[in-house]
Amino acid sequence: MKHLIDIKDLSVEEIDELIEVAKDIIKNPDKYSKKCEGKILATLFFEPSTRTRLSFESAMLRLGGNVLGFSEANSSSTAKGESVSDTIRVVGEYSDIIVMRHPKEGAPVVAAEKSIVPIINAGDGGHNHPTQTLTDLLTIKCEKGRFDNLTIGLCGDLKFGRTVHSLISAMVRYPKVKFILISPEELKIPSYIKKEVLDKNKIEYIETQNIEEYMNKLDILYMTRVQKERFFNEADYIRLKDSYILDEEKIINSKKDLCIMHPLPRVNEISVKIDNNPKACYFKQAKYGKFIRMALILKLLEEC
Amino acid sequence: MNIDSIKNGYVIDHIKEGKGMQIYEDLKLGELNCPVAIIKNAKSNKMQKKDIIKVDGNIQLNIDVLGYIDSDITINVVKDSKIIKKYHPELPEKITNIIKCKNPRCITSIEQELDQVFVLTDKEKRVYRCKYCESKAK
Ligand SMILES: [Zn+2]
Question: Is A194 a catalytic residue?
Answer without folding.
Answer: no
